[in-house]
Amino acid sequence: MSTREMVCITCPRGCTMQVEQFDGAIKVTGNFCKRGEQFAVNELTMPMRTICSTVKTSFPESPVLPCRVSKDIPKDKIFDVMNEINRVVVTERISRGDVIIKNVLGLDADVISTSDLLRKGE
Amino acid sequence: MIKTDVLVIGGGPAGLAAAIEAHKNGAKVILIERESRLGGILKQCIHDGFGLVRFEEKLSGPEYAERFIDEFRELHIEALLLTFVTKVQKTESGFVATVVNRDGVMDIEAKSLILATGCRERTAKQVFIHGTRPAGVFTAGTAQHFTNLLGELPTKKCVILGSGDIGLIMARRLTLEGAKVLGVYEVKPTPSGLTRNIHQCLNDFDIPLHLSHTVTRVFGVDRLEGVEVAKVDENMRAIPGTEEYIECDALILSVGLIPENEIAENLGVEIDPKTKGPKCDASLMTSVPGIFSCGNALHVNDLVDYVSESGETAGRSAALFSGKERKMASVIPGDKILYIVPQKLDTLSVGSETVVYFRSKEVYDDSIFRITVDGETVFEKKYAFLRPPEMEKVIVDFSKCGLSENSKISAEIEVTVK
Amino acid sequence: MANILKIQKKLSKRFGDRVKAELDGDIIRLSGSLSDWSEVVEACLMSSEKNSNIHVVNDIEFTGAEIPKMRVPSLSDDELEGKTPDVLVIGGGISGCAIARELSKWNINVMLVEKEADFALQASGRNDGEVHVGVDLSKGSLKQKYVLLGNRMYDKVCEDLDVPFERIGQYACFTQSYLYIPVWLLVQWRRFHDGVTDARVVGRKKMLEDNPTFNKDFKFAMYNGLAGVVCPYGLTIAYAENAAENGVEAYLNTAVLSMDTENGEIKAVHTNRGTIYPKIVVNAAGVFSDDVAEMANDRFYSIHPRRGTNSIQDKKAARLINTIASVQLIGKQTFSKAHTKGGGLIRTVHGNVLAGPDAVETFDKEDISTRPESIKTVYDKQKQTIKEVSERDIITYFTGVRAPTFEEDFVIEWGRRCKNMLHCGGIQSPGLTAAPAFALDIEKMIVDELSKSMKVERNESFNPKRHGVPVLNEMSPEERAKKIAENPDYGVIICRCEEISKGEIIDALERPLCPPTVDAIKKRIRPGMGRCQGGFCSPLVTKIIAEHENIKISDVRKASAESVICFGETKGGALND
Fold this sequence. Notes:
The complex is a heterotrimer of chains A (122), B (418) and C (577). Chain A is an alpha+beta fold and 122 residues long. In chain A, 18% of the residues lie in helices and 34% in strands. In chain B, strands 1, 2, 5, 6, 7, 8 and 20 form a seven-stranded mixed sheet that branches.
């Protein structure tokens, strides 16, 4: 059995929770609401994260374009996805929301542009 | 001379929201922006977490800003980009702002003025860091500009001083770009940034957070070569004998933000020493009639959602500004309150839904936030916890308590359980 | 002549057999071994006589720490190999630059070398910018002679060189009524004996009327209306630019490493950029002037470096003071013995408030690091001048290292054991004030000397007028609009605190001798000097420099070649390099 303290970050309240793990079961106390328990279970079984970064462009006035993944990816894939992001050079004047890398590493998430920075007239 | 009803200074989230709302309330609006693009500091805040309150989505800074920019454009509101306000003067009918840009120098006359000038970062010298003066000492925002806008890496191995949100965000950002963040040092015994940022920016990447520690000296003649850190006592003074040398190539500072109010001060606007922003009434009008303040110029917000909200309040108020008389009563914060906004209420136009923002001075568990008028409680809210990094917002009905200039309005925090 | 026996007796009493004095021709040479630097300074000072031209030379071995070697730029090339200037000026501080500019009036070949990445990077750029009146100095020293002359030259020099200068007056304030008569007498003496013609005593009422923020406890003050303020690095750079415009060749990042001498004459000067063969060498090397003298076997004085820290306050604090003022603390700093005579609180020429400096002896000639106790010392004192002065208004602070001899006077003379070296050493406060004046005398000395072996003619095309970068924010709206119409970049504000435009930055980059670095631009036209200290504008300035010079952002430097700002592109670019 193992016990650890975890701070729930689902909302700004930030409940400090005690998470006990034994025989594959997870017991959470100290959470104010149900989301806290869900958060703790996810953190222990399959922690997911988003990534926000930039991609290189071929436009000198905007050498990088902000991007993010369209949905959360497994935490342990963060640096693998960063490697993919670092390999890309955007050469088209794409818009906010446009896909830069489709289904990155087969994680069912796209890397998308988060800015209209490159759009003409911006 | 160009004439307008409302002149908005600053094209960040506060100014955009203010301009849009003033326009929707029927005013002719001109917005002045120093940079070549709208969006303010959000342009470089590429991380997510913006708009949770407003859009119930986790947007990145540019996405959040561009939603407002899109609306601003659709409404055909006039913006002067790459334009800098050099002077604002009060006139009989309002204000005249002198601006410069590539077209020259021009005056703009406005009936009311919205100051949405944001904030700046405290610098190394303002937190009294001593030693040499090498390259490699950056505020977090400057490091963010280099990294996220110019695509340049300002460090390979750094120490971060201050656990403010921008510092935490930059710890993760630089780590993702391959730099090594050796640790975050915070002089206070509690973190300055939001809990989720401690978790996702530091813990996720095993970046240690050293509370009650500070950087005492920097070393290196040309480029920074190392810093000296030390433990601090309860008065935040370095404890002799606890110094430790850390080899690194940069010191990144996230040691606080200061509202930018030079224009306001020159116009004689009264500044609250606690917020370092103008003292405002519920309409976010400052002590000078016709001048409104919002966003981080008003007080440093924790969430951009509140920045936009205050922009909208200021925008609406500025559009409807008529110059009618005000009779003010002060809101007096108790000793457990770091600050409260608004600082004053106009007793002649008391709303039933007055938005009040406050921060607690320290971390308090199980406490009650209470507003009283002449000893009578008009508002009360229980909190399981209050933390200085997290701003609180409440809506208070002052319409039924017969406010007058002589009313004693007090706000206090009562800690119910130790 | 110095009584060496008397000196030896004093030294023995204090240091036993650890320090020895001997008369070596016209110098007093101290030897021995001490582990505490303050003792080294004490021994030398107790052996010296103020303003004497028999100098103490410090050969005491200091065992307390390793004295750092002079920092030398990493640059190494042969750009200057074989050059044969008539005059080689060593040092790009106020002395060297002023001398070079005055020499440019003549048709001679003048070269100036400076080891730092810019001019005025040491003491000349790290002082309080006060133009002194000399009220603290008695007749008989070079300092006194040149400070009086220099002060009166400032209006013309600054007008010619297009450098802002203001005579804002100086108050030395007293809280003790009983000192009124002695101070009054001193003032009369200074006026009629020493030539400080504008010195006077002002009463409490008038002083507080003109300066309502001053400490109400002040009873009277010594006042000098001729005291002024100038931007010290601005003036130094202006001298350098004007020298270059009139034909002087100046090289930064160029350090003199050694010299070849023969029969008491310098034959060759070795630098990191090749060997130079000058006719005359001017030693204006500041804290290193004794080391440069040594290279020519002509070390007849020693420098004991003395650090001074100044702090700069936000322009908002300028409501507190519009002059130069300092409380006079009895016993320490009143009449003589003062190692920091000026300073106090100064409204700078750019509208900030400066507080400082302090004075701390050091063995490290290049220790420009700051320490908290310096700030505390200065503020503890200056809060007695103006009570509202607060550390909270500080936006930056810096340390400079003064270059005094133990006799505390300037050394301006031909070498004693080397014929063709002209010393301009021991220049410390009021060196900034004195430089325009002694530069003229040095010009004459050199022209006279060169005339013995060659025909020296006037440079007919010499133009004393320099035109600096236009300062847009000081112009009327009409003038400003006109400039913007000529160049729209003047309308793009880059530094919000100091209101500096892109056009001004590009102008600065195109001035003579401007290194394309962030600090050089900051020193010339002030982006980054304001309250945000470059937080907003430094990436923008970096980018403008990169674009103008057609280099990568990561190739732009703060100052020296090693002062990297960014390491290269993100996305792994910088890390894979």
